[in-house]
Specification:
heterodimer; A: 392 residues; alpha+beta; ten-stranded mixed sheet; two-stranded antiparallel ribbon; 13 helices; 16% strand; elongated; B: 224 residues; alpha/beta; Rossmann fold; four-stranded antiparallel sheet; binds adenosine-5'-diphosphate; binds magnesium ion
């Protein structure tokens, strides 16, 4: 036995109460993390919505294409910074029949300028831009299918004819990583020119959609309207939408709710502190006589204070860890997955923010210490004779 | 003649009780020789526990000087006093006051946690002390698994494990039946005779007082 194990014995002294307190802290931590995750997820959605990208497509349906010369019209329109365009390729790797991913033919010069949250090493990007059979793939996709830079892969397109004499074989020139959590990390991009050259003359020089970035994200709505007006009298009309325009307006109405959730998450921490404080105070009252005995034996006031504080901190810490352990499956596996799949616009990424785990654990430890501070101080200040006269 | 183990000079102790001052001890002179076994008797409320607490350094006098085992304890700081208690003194309570979550041997070991003693050595000394009180076969029992007499003997083992020069006992047999009380008294006698511990014991029990070498009476704050 040593001082620490003696203190530890006391933690489990009133097992029922300790277990209840630990559960109380754990539930508080789960609730705290849940609320913080809601705020985090919404803020992330708002961040995505704040993007300065406009997608222009065929007014009727995105299956129909636009003339490629529209790209130049968009590029010279006022308020537009950079423009890129792409065609859907579909595609799958016949070796991995059940893995679905987006394969897209893109403009190599501008694609990664417009989607600058997708990062490729400069050297890989340059190599890809001059390699007509090259492709850049997302890190998640590469990992899943075991692809590495330099590998040759052959895809089948569900849309464009497969020619055994001229298969869709690509060299993986690079792997992109995501700088934002909104990015699909399983996309396969390759040269638009290569696709265009394979298409029969009648369908050539058509693009699936045009994506542009505007100078000022605040004017993204007006710019979108202006773009569509540009093509009103042309052979094909367009529909331009800023990415997640819906999100932005939707979230704006929720800012008061977010603030309320902020407050409630703090209230939960206060409640947790009160639970801990109550447990500590009850323990100290019951054991006052014992503290007197320890002091009579020669223990210092600081020993008594350390016992009280240590007990509270251990209880808070165990409760905090338990709460975190419970929160992950509950929030990320259960609710998170469901929300992401069914309410992806509001909750594109419903995951616990790692820093909030540290905050939750830190809070349960620090607040436990705070809750115990006054009882610990009082217990250590007790006059030995008074403590001894106190009958439990 | 050697210096007395306990030497109180002109010691007064009063308590504040809602504005009123309750004078418990007044200008008391009190000496206990080294190696003696003294019983302190007197009616309830006469200040016996108060006196014992002053001797044990658990409380401070309102006036006067207290020297115990060669140290002026009335002027010691809180920390120095705690250290002095740990090294010099063993306290035996009427209510045993064992820690319920610790086994007998762990209760005995408790005071050693404050000393720079290796863990194995602590356990060895605690077991030795338990053997002295005749409870080596109960070392892994918890207090609730022991009889009152056994609990008090464990408490005595705890009081002697640090090898103190002075044992202070406040009605150590007050909660015990005759047979258990006699066991405890015999044990105290042995500690006094064989291990040369100076003992001062408060008691109401004339039989207990008989075991002591000196019997004193305290009445209304003064020694008779
Ligand atoms: N901490 C205290 N505060 C106030 N009064 C006290 C305190 N301790 C003892 N007393 C009073 O002092 C008197 C002597 O008490 P005590 O020394 O316990 O007597 P005894 O042990 O001889 O029965 C009693 O009247 C008691 O109520
Ligand atoms: Mg008394």
């Amino acid at each position: 036995m040593n001082l620490a194990s003696f203190a530890a014995r006391n933690v489990l002294r009133n097992r029922f109460r300790t277990v209840l307190t630990v559960l109380g802290v754990a539930v508080a931590v789960v609730a705290f993390l849940l609320l913080r995750t809601v705020v985090y997820a919404w803020t992330m959605a708002a961040d995505f919505a704040a993007k300065d990208r406009v997608v222009t497509r065929h007014k009727v349906t995105f299956i129909m294409t636009l003339p490629k010369r529209y790209v130049d019209d968009v590029r010279t329109a006022p308020g537009i910074k950079v423009v890129t365009f792409a065609n859907w390729f579909g595609g799958k790797d016949p070796k991995h029949d059940t893995e679905f991913f987006s394969a897209v033919a893109v403009d190599t010069k501008s694609f990664f300028q417009v989607y600058d949250e997708m990062r490729v090493a400069d050297a890989d990007l340059e190599r890809w831009q001059t390699d007509r059979s090259g492709a850049i793939v997302g890190d998640v996709l590469a990992k899943k299918l075991g692809w590495h830079v330099g590998d040759k892969v052959t895809l089948e397109s569900g849309i464009y004819p497969d020619d055994p004499q001229n298969p869709w074989t690509f060299t993986i020139d690079g792997i992109y990583t995501a700088m934002a959590k909104s990015v699909d990390r399983s996309t396969f991009v390759f040269h638009w020119d290569r696709l265009n050259d394979r298409i029969a003359t009648r369908g050539q020089n058509e693009v699936g959609w045009i994506v542009s970035r505007v100078d000022d994200p605040r004017h993204v709505a007006e710019t979108s309207l202006a773009l569509d007006r540009l093509f009103d009298d042309r052979e094909v009309q367009t529909l331009s939408q800023d990415e997640g325009a819906f999100n932005a307006s939707f979230l704006a109405g929720f800012s008061a709710v977010l603030r309320a959730i902020d407050v409630v998450s703090l209230v939960i921490l206060v409640i947790m502190t009160l639970i801990l404080g109550n447990t500590v105070a009850m323990g100290v009252r019951e054991r006052t006589n014992e503290y007197g005995v320890l002091r009579a034996i020669g223990f210092f006031p600081r020993h008594i204070a350390a016992f009280v504080l240590g007990e509270a901190v251990v209880t808070g810490c165990v409760g905090g860890v338990l709460g975190i352990v419970l929160a992950y499956p509950l929030i990320e596996r259960g609710m998170g997955r469901w929300l992401e799949e069914n309410m992806g616009v509001m909750f594109p990424y419903f995951r616990i923010e790692t820093s909030m785990v540290a905050v939750a654990l830190g809070a349960s430890v620090v607040l436990a210490g705070a809750a115990a501070a006054i009882p610990a101080w009082r217990a250590s200040r007790l006059r030995v004779t008074d403590a001894l006269r106190r009958v439990a | 003649m050697t210096a007395p183990m306990i030497n109180l000079r002109q010691v007064s102790k009063s308590y504040d009780r809602g504005g009123e001052t309750l004078k418990v001890l007044q200008a008391l002179d009190f000496e206990v020789a080294s190696g003696s076994f003294e019983a302190l008797m007197g009616p309830s409320g006469s200040g016996k526990s108060t006196l014992l607490n002053l001797i044990a350094g658990l409380d401070r006098p309102t006036a006067g000087t207290i020297e115990v085992a060669g140290t002026r304890i009335d002027t010691l700081g809180e920390g120095a006093l705690a250290k002095w208690r740990a090294n010099t003194l063993g306290f035996i309570f009427q209510a045993y006051n064992l820690i319920p979550v610790l086994t007998a041997v762990e209760n005995v070991e408790l005071p050693l946690l404050l000393a720079p003693v290796a863990s194995r050595e602590r356990r060895r000394r605690a077991e030795t002390a338990l053997r002295v009180v005749g409870l080596e076969d109960r070392s892994l029992h918890y207090p609730r698994q022991l009889s009152g007499g056994q609990e008090q003997r464990v408490a005595i083992a705890r009081a002697i494990v640090n090898d103190p020069t002075l044992l202070v006992a406040d009605e150590p047999t007050g909660d015990l039946d005759r047979a258990s009380a006699d066991d405890v008294l015999r044990l105290l006698e042995t500690l006094n005779k064989e291990l040369k511990k100076t003992i001062i014991m408060v008691t109401h029990d004339p039989v207990a007082a008989e075991r002591a070498t000196v019997v004193r009476r305290l009445d209304k704050g003064s020694l008779a």
